[in-house]
Amino acid sequence: MTERILVGQLAARTDGPVSVSGWVETVRDQKKVQFVILRDETGAVQLVNPATRPAEDGTSQDAAALELTDAISNLAHGTFLTVTGDLKHDERVKLGGLEIKLHSLQVAAAALPETPIAADSSMDKRMDWRFLDLRQRRNNLIFRVSTTLEHAMRQYWIDRDYIELHSPKLMSSPSESHAELFALDYFGDQTAYLAQSPQHYKQMAQAAGFGKVFEISDVFRADPSFTSRHATEFTSVDAEISWIDSHLDVAAMQEELLATAIQAVKDKHGGEITELFDVEVTVPTLPFPRIPLAQAHEIIKARGYESPRTDGDLDPEGERQISAHVAETYGHQFVFITDYHPEIRPFYHMLDEATGLTRSYDLLFNGVEITTGAQREHRIEVLEAQAVAKGLKLEGLAHYLDFFRYGMPPHGGFGMGLARVLMLLLGEASIREVTFLFRGPTRLAP
Amino acid sequence: MTERILVGQLAARTDGPVSVSGWVETVRDQKKVQFVILRDETGAVQLVNPATRPAEDGTSQDAAALELTDAISNLAHGTFLTVTGDLKHDERVKLGGLEIKLHSLQVAAAALPETPIAADSSMDKRMDWRFLDLRQRRNNLIFRVSTTLEHAMRQYWIDRDYIELHSPKLMSSPSESHAELFALDYFGDQTAYLAQSPQHYKQMAQAAGFGKVFEISDVFRADPSFTSRHATEFTSVDAEISWIDSHLDVAAMQEELLATAIQAVKDKHGGEITELFDVEVTVPTLPFPRIPLAQAHEIIKARGYESPRTDGDLDPEGERQISAHVAETYGHQFVFITDYHPEIRPFYHMLDEATGLTRSYDLLFNGVEITTGAQREHRIEVLEAQAVAKGLKLEGLAHYLDFFRYGMPPHGGFGMGLARVLMLLLGEASIREVTFLFRGPTRLAP
């Protein structure tokens, strides 16, 4: 490696020669002095060069100085380069109170002079040039926050002896339903389907005696919707655990997980998030409020809203209303909505014998659903009956149902969309903003 | 949660009432006494019950005792259940020096009486019933080792401020070559391809100024081969870093990463690995040996072997030979083979100006290639010329090439097959043994 100093390390360094590498954010090419803002993954620093211009009277000038001045004049925004120079701490410099007086400049790869996007470009245009869009400090922070959030979740699970899964995304039968399914030819003689979730396999891990598992990986939905919350490929955060008494044991794990992970984000990035997103990261208190669905409907009705859905589920505005109620009543950003009717739940959710409702929940965060969790039906006879009651063909579920024939512990788990959590944590308007490269019905590139 | 005690916690517990949950590994149903081995994810424990049989003379017996004895007699292997009983430490008990005298037994889900696989079943049969196969202690350990290995790698990167990526697996153009490519219909008007690697996108992250990135995720190859080292879907461990001087900077990171991760595995599972796999985990010393490809050919020739490949690459036996040489000469399990000819490397590998060879390496571990690493060509003119020289159409690479037009730092990285590392670490014969659910040309289920 070169003796490269990260911009973030400069403040702690004494004055003297340094070498930094990054890209050109701005150039101010004045007659007598040139300023360059150079950014790397840790910050930005001002470079300064007293311009040496060809003398109008033809007096000879220092060739190297002329060349350096000329090189700076010709720098396009975005060009990656390495510079050497003298670091000087100077309180008068707005940007971090320091600057580097340039000695030399070495371009690694020059940018074309016309940048195809600007700060006010449309989202679609920004997605076309996502690698330029991601150079913004704000966008870079999103993915550092994501990294911290994920690692804290994994650490929570590792500390509790969970096993990390990599379940297959190529399947011989759908993992959830026959809707929204991507299919592909598999060696000319079979059809493979892309996993809509790791549901089958994280349950299989329970039959395998793994006890507690998690997986963070991409899943696929051939969903033609264009909302701010949907994508055709997204990162799903999944966990599944054995020997639970009900879905509330899953909820208890998930709320502790989230509080731990959000605490880690606040500790590491809280200040920067406030600066760049104008959001104060709030670590949620435990337990999160829990409200049965029927009661949620009464609450929002009392607020003057009724969900237009005929299936009894909350619509997006209903989710916002109940979250507003929870925020006002409990000062909480999260709420578990519980006790869903089996008609609006998949066949594998366990039913509560007393109420006939599912042992399941949705978790809402700042008004948007981020999770469905449930206890699963582990008794094969009941499971088959529930599948048949939903009109499913048992043959299509053969592999899945086999998992239950040779012993299975009571178990449950949840799936959570990583991008939704990030969107809501940072107060962004769309998961597109917090996804590295969004995929939608008309978006397959770059 | 029930007041469940994990089997692994029993040894430290004083004698008295306990409740444990798990599955039936064996039943010994003797006339006067019954023994059950119950296993959970942390270990196995012996349950004992003095049998109460219907008296031949018709004397009345304790109904509950009769029922418990009968229930044990009818337990099928694999049945998941919760038992309560009195824990008793007793040095005469072979299995861990303790047993539980049963009070009660509650079956969660009974197994069918005939288990479809046995210890000596073929690999294909075991894969059909993978969830039963995975109940073996040895197989369970594989995935605990995998979890530890991965987490240690991620921790290494997190400690060094890498950003974790989730790059899309659905792409509008191939990420590596047009061979071995899965294609699918995308909403009726486009063809999507499944990512063969995150290559394009981890390079895009360099153009985005992310500096250092990693990703651990599944990638897809429509590879019709049936070797012990190939799969159509596998977990790829990828990293990419900016501002390197050459591929040797990538190698230096990778060897440190592996040494750190293998140390973590040894610390946490070393004893158990030796017990169950008869393998002594060796933490590799740094640096790993580095041998240019041309010299490797000379070395194996001197050992009496010549690679039959006409393209100048090592064949599998050649890899075993050079690894044997390294083991004998340096006592090392790893070796970097460097300086590959551009003909056997992708177009995006950077060439060394002095030698005309690529700035790339393969990493061999115990005789098998686990990684290709390289410095990438970051200069758009050179990159385009190298693509054309390989006969590639630039139009097909348009999105990728765009990443290089607006500034790009020098960079490089590696991709490593997780299953290969696990296979070689544990001395297994095939990646199928260390993959949760293997996918091959004729294997798409369960």
From TrEMBL, chains A, B:
Annotated ranges, domain Aminoacyl-transfer RNA synthetases class-II family profile: 143-446
Keywords, ordered alphabetically: Aminoacyl-tRNA synthetase, ATP-binding, Cytoplasm, Ligase, Nucleotide-binding, Protein biosynthesis
Protein's cellular compartments: Cytoplasm
Enzyme Commission no: 6.1.1.12
Residues the record lists as binding L-aspartate: 176, 221, 372, 376
Binding residues for ATP: 369, 417-420
GO MF assignments: ligase activity
Reaction equations catalysed: tRNA(Asp) + L-aspartate + ATP = L-aspartyl-tRNA(Asp) + AMP + diphosphate
Physiological role: Catalyzes the attachment of L-aspartate to tRNA(Asp) in a two-step reaction: L-aspartate is first activated by ATP to form Asp-AMP and then transferred to the acceptor end of tRNA(Asp).
PANTHER family attached to this UniProt entry: ASPARTATE--TRNA LIGASE, CYTOPLASMIC, ASPARTYL-TRNA SYNTHETASE
Protein name in UniProt: Aspartate--tRNA ligase
